[in-house]
Amino acid sequence: MKFAASPKSRVSVGLLPMINVVFLLLIFFLIAGEMQQPEPIDVNPPDVAHAQEAEGALSLYLGPDGRLAFRNLDVAFEDRQGLMAALAGSLTDCGGDTCAPVLLLHADRGAPARLIAELLPELGAAGFEQVNLVAVGRGTAERGQP
User: Fold this and answer.
1) Residue 137: is its pLDDT beyond 80?
2) Best-predicted range by mean pLDDT among 16-25, 54-63, 83-92?
């Protein structure tokens, strides 16, 4: 005795279009998104009347409490010798002529001016020819150099 096989109903789920859409969204967000590390110290930059775009490959952060941060180093202002050595070493990491000795200083508006005044000669001695103070122009969201 032979039994007839029951008819199997095939449900066709179109997963391929859904996979394509997810893949395209992934590519879109990878291209459109900005991937950068968060700032090591939360800095509220000073306001200036006229700002222009500041240029520099390296960034140094000075917080309102006098803390200094560069890359993964975060030290008190008094303990900045190791941080200065790391800054000077970063100039030689680039291969000499390819690195312009320009530094972006992200100083908080509440940071004491005497700390900046003490810091600038040390940055010059470390090899930086120019230090650009990062500020925010009034009425604009762009950051720049006063």
Assistant:
1) no
2) 16-25
pLDDT at 100 (0 to 100): 58
Q: With 90 as the cut, is the pLDDT of residue 23 above it?
A: yes
Q: Which residues, in sequence order, are CB contacts of 2 under 8 Å at separation 6+?
A: none
Paired tokens of 43 = 């800095």
**Residue 62 near residue 115, CB atoms below 8 Å:** yes
Spatial separation of the C-alpha atoms in residues 121 and 20, rounded to whole Å = 57
State both tokens at 142: 């762009």
Are 107 and 116 contacting, i.e. CB atoms less than 8 angstroms apart? yes
pLDDT(144) > 80: no
Which of these, 10, 7, 72, 64, lies nearest to 39 by C-alpha position? 72
Cβ-based burial of 124 (10 A; exposed 0-12, middle 13-18, buried ≥19)? middle
Which residue, among 103, 109, 102, has the nearest Cα to 136 in the 3D structure? 109
What is the DSSP secondary structure assignment for residue 7, as one 8-state letter?
Answer: P
